[in-house]
Model the fold of this input.
Amino acid sequence: MWRLITITCWMLLLRPTYTYHKKRFITNPEAHMNISQIISYWGYPSEEYDVVTRDGYILGVYRIPHGRGCAGETAPKPVVYLQHGLIASAINWICNLPSKSLAFILADAGYDVWMGNSRGNTWSKKHLNFSSTSPEFWAFSMDEMAKYDLPDTINFIVGKTGQEQLYYVGHSQGTTIAFIAFSTNPELAKRIKIFFAMAPVTTVKYTQSPMKRLTTLSRKLVKVLFGEKMFSPNTFFDQFLATKVCSRKIFQRICSNFLFTFSGFDAKNLNMSRLDVYLAHSPAGTSVQNMLHWAQAFKSGKFQAFDWGNSDQNMKHFQQATPPLYDITKMDVPTAVWSGDQDLVADPKDTANLLPKIPRLIYYKLIPHYNHVDFYLGEDAPQEIYQDLIRLMKECS
Done:
């Protein structure tokens, strides 16, 4: 509803100002492109694959096999896999200019770059047996992403490249599913050279994110308000706001404030001229059940599997009456962590509680001015994060 109200207000504002701002009304072409098109637009090679999980979901996985100046090289390159956060997509890694986008930077640095999409987002809404309009399709949370999406995608990459190990980069929920998967699946953990965790999220006891308001609602009320299927999909209104409103300089500050409300404020570190690209592809959606899982985490303060609502259902899924806790201390993977002091989602106090539980912590950096999206949108991310990430990979090889 707030989006409809906002659109109405802005359309009224736009009418008298259109002529004056017509020359400033420039939309970046990537706002209208898909993932493969954005990669190709910047002159990089692009490959697209469908990964079918053991439970039937079809995930869109994208590859940049080499940089712009490496077409003639045939030697195998080290593999890096990038996993996005909550209600996001692989576009996070390529939505900035090539000199600022991690996927492009890694490709130019000599890496074979793969980007995943979690089930249910814009690029992973297919299933072998279920339609995306059915409730059965949306009966998943981060548990299934960790149990099926992550290992099945990594095994696919291993089979395609012939390389038994790879580097893993996760942001936000991309770290959450990795902490689950690597601590519960020792064979998968052996395939990871280094786990790079940006804005890591396990417990969310101290989070200041507006999403925490879900904890004030009963499960039944959440389903009444949002249904039982998709949460926060990318819609026509998102596209309209991004390309027809946020591309206008007069509205850039208002548009950026919507982004910062959920992530934390850091206006000086955002390229305002690319707001239309950021917002045209975001949010990318997830399941209502996944949001209920996060609401459970907000309320309990625990890093725990999804509570199916009664002991019988929990027994069916976990062979015990209550959902199991995830034990990070069992994760045998070298891990590097970056966190932000202005992050509303991955609060520094939650991160401080996480760090001692990581058995093989090889690197940690707290960035004082960083919010939750600076890790992939920040203008200074190459200096603050990416150069050290590449250095750690080169030292490992």
Q: What stands out?
A: Residues 2-21 form the longest helix (20 residues). Confidence is low (pLDDT under 50) at residues 1-5, 7-12, 16-23.
